[in-house]
């Protein structure tokens, strides 16, 4: 028997620290937890980024980074991703890297366009450099819109970091780089999660992604959380999402102790 590893993959404009509460909760349930940062992301408590490295991160680089993490483990991990990290988790489990995946507020796969108003939120201004930052005000309006201002400001101060312009360009629809294997049969279970008040990845987009898996015989589930925004993995309501994921894993016989 070995403890099942869980790899957490964070999204754009956030640091790996956005998973700290989840990692602790999963560890208490017996899982081995890992929340590695993106290439060029500084260590928690240290310098926030290495600009030359982070600025070069595109979707393929990010996917391969986490593929290497997953392959380095002694057991096939569960992949839990948020936003861009949720897209990476889907790409990896579709390539049989990881035994199951949870995609929370997933950046859309190729062929699922964002509404024009939402697409503009992901589009960096023409004058932007290689790294694109959010202000605290924009973070609240776009990412943490369902929480009060003081909580949003705390989340911003603790967890925000710039996003690579190259990565944002890769996510522009239609984006061949964002294609996932939607029709396979051999991959592990996949759970898609949406917040119904999400402005950055609207619930309608996650439902459209779910429909793309309609011809897939592998397990694909959808869970929608009412009154939740894009910050649903790190704001004050994170426990309800984390506990739902833990229950879903248990229902699919993915337990903290594994023989795989």
Would you report the number of β strands?
Answer: 10
Q: What oligomeric state do the depicted chains represent? A: single chain
Kindly name the structural category. Answer: alpha/beta
Q: What is the makeup of the main sheet?
A: 6 strands, parallel
**H/E element string?**
EEHEHHEHEHEHHEHEHEHE
Shape: globular
Question: Could you write a compact summary of the structure shown?
Answer:
Helix content is 36%, strand content 15%. It is α/β, with parallel strands linked by helices.
Structure description:
Helix 1 (20-28) packs across helix 10 (238-251). The chain starts with a strand and ends with a strand. The mean pLDDT is 90. It has helices at 20-28, 51-54, 59-72, 84-94, 116-122, 136-143, 149-159, 165-170, 203-212, 238-251; strands spanning 2-3, 5-9, 32-34, 78-82, 100-104, 131-132, 163-164, 190-195, 220-225, 257-258. Strand 8 (190-195), helix 9 (203-212) and strand 9 form a beta-alpha-beta unit. The strands form 3 sheets. Strands 3-2-4-5-8-9 form a 6-stranded parallel sheet, sandwiched between helices. It has a two-stranded antiparallel sheet with strand order 1-10. The chain has 260 residues and is α/β, with parallel strands linked by helices.
